[in-house]
Amino acid sequence: MRCAYHIMRDAVGYCCVCGEFGCGDCLKEHEGKHYCHRHYQPFAEAEAREKRRTDFKRRAHRQRLVAHLQDGNVFRGYCYHLDLEEPGFRLDLVDGDGELTGEVRPISFSELKALFYVRSFDGKFEKGHESDEWRPEGGEAVVQFRDGETIEGFTLRPYHEGQPRFYVIPGKPNTNDISVLVEASAVEGVYTPQEFKQRQKAALTAYVHEHAHTGFSREELGGDFHFTAHRYHRAIQYYNVALEHAPNEPRLLKKIASAEYNIGVQHIRNHEYSLALRCMETVLRLAPDNGKARQKAQKLRERLHAAKH
Q: Is the domain of 203 the same as that of 172?
């Protein structure tokens, strides 16, 4: 049997719709069946539409996200679409260099603590660029999570209790964080700065009174109070004041080293390796025998050296 359009060629089959015989160039295969050019056209158009959709998706602005879960795990990756009305979203994970790993992590809102929209995964970004999409319309707020961590900024929309989740825009300009999606189930409370300051003052007074039997100074207890709430920078400020009254006190130096170590770990989680190394080196100056800090400092140096070369 000859091809209907190329009479010098043998037919390799026939169209499953019209029965027309054709050669290898005239018949197209789709899902195991052969079609002539005319009857294959709908499939060709569908494939073209899918290719355009895929190409657009590849070119589309991908949201760089850092997901902090309530169990303490942190995941980084890209998300093409995030619908707050859905049960969750999918995150295309990246490695330490910000490259896609090919792994996809489904994340449900019920396990989420906060979702950070970031300008870059490594903390390097072009400063001075602002997006109209993230201009806050709500008031200034301090969000306190159940684990003690706090974030400060402005709510994207006016805040109302009962919202399952809401956006907070960082108060400091030119930070790597563009916005933060806060999951309400992970929140202890949302306060104005004045309310939060009053609450902290009352909580600090109660903490100092409760731990007065230790014999520690008010400044040291203030550092302990902030340390237990994971506010390590604030804790170091208190410990340094306590050091002025008790220079080179080993206990205070150890506490400062512990706070610096935790700050360094936070920088590592944020892929801010230079800042993390600086913290680990500070720890080693204060506590030369700290094996964990020495190990992390070595790995950070190796990573930064490899990045330069």
A: no
Buried-exposed string 198-219: b where 16+ CB fall within 10 A, e elsewhere: eebeeebeebbeeeeeeebbeb
Residue 151 CA to residue 227 CA, distance in Å, equals 16
Query: Same domain for 124 and 200?
Result: no
- Report yes or no on 178 lying in a domain: yes
> Helix, strand or coil for residue 30?
strand
Q: What is the DSSP string of 106-157?
A: EEEGGGEEEEEEES-SSS---TT---GGG---S-EEEEEETTS-EEEEEESS
Give residue-wise pLDDT tens across range 279-304: 999 999 999 999 999 999 999 999 89
Per the structure block, which two tokens stand in for 75? 């995941």
Residues 6+ apart with CB under 8 A from 147: 70, 113, 186, 230
What gap in Å lies between CA 144 and CA 272, rounded to an integer? Answer: 24
Q: Which residues constitute the domain of residue 102?
A: 63-191
User: Same domain for 164 and 212?
Assistant: no
Helical packing angle, 291-308 and 273-286, nearest 10°: 150
On the CB side of 106, how many CA atoms lie within 13 Å of its CA? 5
For residue 61, what are the CA distances in angstroms to 80, 170, 250?
7, 21, 51
pLDDT of residue 172: 78
Is residue 75 packed enough to be buried (19+ CB in 10 Å), middle (13-18) or exposed (0-12)? middle
Helix (H) or strand (E) holding 45: helix 37-59
d(CA 141, CA 150): 10
For the chain, residues with pLDDT lower than 70 are: 52-61, 123-133, 309
Q: How far apart are CA 75 and CA 92, in angstroms?
A: 10
Residues 6+ apart with CB under 8 A from 70: 111, 112, 113, 146, 147, 183, 185, 186
Starting at the earlier edge strand, list the strands of the sheet with 140-145. 100-108, 88-94, 74-79, 63-69, 112-118, 177-183, 165-170, 150-155, 140-145, 187-191
What CATH number should be reported for the domain holding residue 266? 1.25.40
Residue 159 lies in a domain: yes
